[in-house]
Structures are given as structure tokens and as C-alpha cells.
Write a structure and sequence with these properties.
By secondary structure, this protein is mainly alpha-helical. The protein is 63% helix and 1% strand. The chain is built from 21 helices and two strands.
Length: 475
């Protein structure tokens, strides 16, 4: 493990016991202590680069105070332009930010854009209430505009300060105002989320030892046979998944120990967004709770869902919610494929300026178009047994597509990514284009294309895994 990974591990490990202590604090004490701890972590690890996040927060506050009507668009422009400056600071003879500063900045960008949208909704509903003399129907809306102190407290809350998950300002307020935090579920869901981390960690260390990423960049690797080179991306993506499975499960455990994102099951909470329906507390005190609001990874469905489009929904789930609500609806296109491509472009930019991100993310729309064409051209004409076989093949190709795209994500440089893809003859691109052409030839692509436009890249549809689909018809 790298020194940076050890620091992340240490922060995650310390946040879990700290969370249980926060349950004993009052609302105001919890807010102050969470701010102090989060800011201390940020300053300790980011040093002078903490100023980048501070400037971002103050700039967003100025936008909100100056023009709440245009705050959503202005905050998105402000934070994303500052991300560009943040990544190009060396051009201005400023020191290169640390990896920890980058992590803080990424999550802060999501928070500030979400906050601006929440404040905008608050003012819109406030005006509507005055004109209609009725209670606002908005679910999970703000009750008042946050102060600068509130925004700073939300921005530097220690929970998920560098690892996520993303959560809305309203989720943060609900956490502060929990009436009986000690009565909420704690140890059991926390241990449930922690139990697989040793397994993920062991797999990560073992497979990474035998299949190091650095080997891909050597001439010796190119001398290996085709099947070894093709298999290598499977091992690299496995290591990649194990690393993030462990990190995100640990981050979720830190939220659970503090009680952040805990809502009654009847609230039908969504990762990142929180409750989707209005609810009243159970007067009998026998309420069932969940932590879906801060769920960032569904390990099982990430591995075993059938489609490429569905795989995105179970990975980095809170960020997918953010993209679905703030980027996809505002895409300057009408067709599903183009809107998905736009969303992937924005996601790549959020991750960084490395060409590998763009090569990987912009391959996703091609894969989605290919699987849509084959579903309508081939799968729709098969019987139950044939559809079962199709789904297994589809699942296998989906996993290979993510293996393939992962190489761009980890190699980063365009030259390294293209050299690797060239070494395996751009296999996934060839297969995707081939499937797309077959679908078009069989006259199935157009109908599925119209249907696909109604789907969202990170929508709310729950899809089964391959094993559950045996002998069953899917959409």
C-alpha cells in the first residue's frame, strides 16, 4: 500500500469509533465538534492547500447570497472552473496540491452545487407557499437559508471529508437534529458493513502483488502472448474494485457509527438524496431504520448485474445520484445516448484532466448503445432459455467492458491507455461496434433507441443480478 492509502485507512479507522461518541453530543456541540475535527484533518493533510477549499466555500456562499435564483447554474460554473484552476495551479507558479487536497476538493464541489440547488428550491417553495397559502409538498426541503457558519460546518464535517460518501445539506441538518441518536441502530449495521473489509483488503494486496499496474507500461509486457495481455485487465479491474469496496464500506461504517443518513425504512431513501416520501415517526417506537442515504456501493450487484448501464448505478452510488439530478437533466441534448455521453463527459472532468478518464468514460455510451441494439434485435426474439443464455453472455461482456475501461482510468495517460488497448487490438471497441451494427442490420436498434431515451444513466430502476434472472424475462 502507498503512504497515501495508509493515511486514508487511518482516517477511516479513526472516524468509526469517533462516530459513536458524536451520538452523545447535543445538536450545537455536534456541529461545532464535527467542524473542528474535519477542519483539523483537512489542515493537517492539505496544509496551505486548504485555502482552495475555503475559497470554493466562500465563493459559493457569495453566489447564494447575491442571486439565489441563478445559484444552481452559477455554483456549477464557479466550482467547476475552480476545479480547472486547482488542477492547473502549477501554471501560475503555485505549489501542486496534495492528493488529499484533491479528494477534499472533489467532494466539496458536489456539496456546493447541491447546496445551491437546495437553497434555490427553498426560496422557490417559500414564494409558492406565500402565494398559495398552503404547505409546501417538497420532500426533504430546507426550513431556512443556511448561514456562512452552517455552510462551513457542512463543508468541513469530518464524516466522509476525503472518502465520501456525498450527502446533501438537508441530510446533514437531519443528522444534527436527531431527537434520540442513541436509540438509532449503531453496532449491528456498522459491523455488517465492516465484515467484508478484511476479505476485500486481502484480495487487494494479494492480486495487486502478482499483477502490478506498473508492469503494463513495460516492453516485457508487450512481449507476452495476447491472452495474457487480455487477462491482465481482468486482474487490474479486480484490484481496483477490491480497493474501492474496502474504502467505501469503511466510509459507510463511519457514517453509520455517527448516525448520519439514518432514516425510517418507510422514507424510501435513495443513496445521496435521502427520503423520497413524507413520513411521520412511529408513535409506538418500533420504527425500522436504514442507512440507504449514505450507501455508496452495492458490491454484489456491481459484479452481477447484467447491463453496462446498470453497473453504473451500483458504483459510487451517491455521486451517481448527484449526476442524475444536477447534470443529466440539464444536458444540451434530447436523445438518451447523447445525454448519457454528456453526463459521462462531466463525470470525467470532475475526476480530473487525465486523458484516460475521457477515453474510459466516453466508451460507456458506445457500450450502452451496443447492448440496447442487441437486446432488441436478438434477446427480444428468444424464448426463456435463450434469454437466460443471452443474459449470461451479456453479463460476461459487461464485465470485460468494465475491465477494458478501467485500464484508461488507472493508466491515466492517453499514450499508456491506447498502447494497452492496441496490444489487445481494441477488443471491446470492436465487439461493441460489431454488436451495434448487427442490431442495426436486424432492424432492432431504432425501437430500443426510443425506449432507451426514457431511461436515465443512474435512474431508480432496481435490476436483478444474473443468478436471479435464470429463466426470467427482463426488460
Amino acid at each position: 500500500m502507498s503512504p497515501e492509502e495508509l493515511v486514508y485507512l487511518g482516517v477511516l479507522a479513526a472516524s468509526i469509533p469517533a462516530g459513536f461518541l458524536f451520538r452523545y453530543l447535543s445538536s450545537s456541540a455536534k456541529q461545532t465538534a464535527a467542524l473542528f475535527l474535519g477542519l483539523s484533518i483537512t489542515i493537517a493533510l492539505c496544509h496551505i492547500h486548504t485555502l482552495h477549499s475555503l475559497v470554493t466555500v466562500v465563493g459559493t456562499w457569495i453566489i447564494i447570497k447575491s442571486s439565489w435564483r441563478h445559484a444552481p447554474a452559477l455554483s456549477l460554473s464557479w466550482t467547476f472552473l475552480y476545479l480547472l484552476f486547482f488542477r492547473l495551479v502549477t501554471w501560475f507558479n503555485l505549489p501542486q496540491p496534495t492528493p488529499f487536497a484533491n479528494a477534499v476538493q472533489l467532494l466539496l464541489t458536489l456539496k456546493m452545487v447541491s447546496l445551491a440547488n437546495e437553497v434555490h428550491s427553498f426560496h422557490v417553495e417559500k414564494k409558492r407557499d406565500v402565494s398559495a397559502f398552503a404547505k409546501s409538498p417538497v420532500i426533504g426541503g430546507l426550513s431556512q437559508e443556511p448561514s456562512l457558519y452552517d455552510i462551513l460546518s457542512y463543508s468541513y464535517c469530518y464524516v466522509g471529508i476525503m472518502t465520501g460518501p456525498f450527502f446533501r445539506f438537508q441530510t446533514y441538518v437531519d443528522w444534527l437534529e436527531q431527537p434520540r441518536p442513541l436509540a438509532l441502530p449503531s453496532w449491528e449495521p456498522c459491523l455488517q458493513r465492516l465484515k467484508m473489509i478484511p476479505v476485500f483488503g486481502a484480495f487487494f494486496l494479494a492480486v495487486n502483488h502478482y499483477f502490478p499496474l506498473s508492469y503494463v507500461r513495460t516492453d516485457e509486457f508487450l512481449d507476452q502472448n495476447f491472452f495474457f495481455r487480455l487477462f491482465y485487465m481482468v486482474a487490474v479491474f479486480f484490484v481496483f474494485r477490491m480497493r474501492f469496496y474496502a474504502a467505501w464500506c469503511g466510509a459507510e461504517a463511519g457514517c453509520i457509527s455517527a448516525g448520519l443518513g439514518c432514516y425510517p425504512e418507510k422514507a424510501l431513501s435513495k443513496p445521496g438524496g435521502g427520503p423520497t416520501v413524507n413520513y411521520n415517526p412511529d408513535p409506538t417506537g418500533e420504527e425500522k431504520y436504514d442507512f440507504k442515504t449514505i450507501q455508496n456501493i452495492d458490491c454484489y450487484n456491481t459484479d452481477f448485474c447484467v447491463k453496462v448501464r446498470h453497473g453504473m448505478r451500483y458504483w459510487n452510488m451517491t455521486v451517481q445520484w448527484w449526476l442524475h439530478h444536477y447534470i443529466y437533466p440539464n444536458a444540451p441534448f434530447k436523445s438518451y445516448a447523447l445525454r448519457a455521453g454528456w453526463t459521462m463527459l462531466i463525470s470525467a472532468y470532475w475526476h480530473g484532466l487525465h486523458a484516460g478518464y475521457y477515453l474510459s468514460f466516453l466508451t460507456i455510451p458506445l457500450c450502452i448503445a451496443a447492448e440496447s441494439a442487441m437486446e432488441s434485435a436478438v434477446r427480444a426474439k428468444l424464448g426463456p432459455s435463450g434469454q437466460n443464455v443471452f443474459d449470461w453472455i451479456h453479463w460476461f461482456l459487461k464485465m470485460r467492458a468494465y475491465d477494458y475501461m478501467c485500464m484508461g482510468f488507472v493508466l491515466l495517460k492517453a499514450s499508456d491507455t491506447i498502447n494497452y488497448w492496441m496490444s489487445i487490438y481494441f477488443t471491446i471497441h470492436v465487439v461493441a461496434v460489431g454488436c451495434l451494427l448487427v442490431g442495426r442490420v436486424l432492424k432492432g436498434g431504432r425501437r430500443e433507441g426510443r425506449k432507451g431515451e426514457k431511461e436515465q444513466p443512474s435512474g431508480e430502476e432496481n435490476t436483478g443480478n444474473v443468478k436471479e434472472k435464470s429463466g426470467q424475462k427482463t426488460e
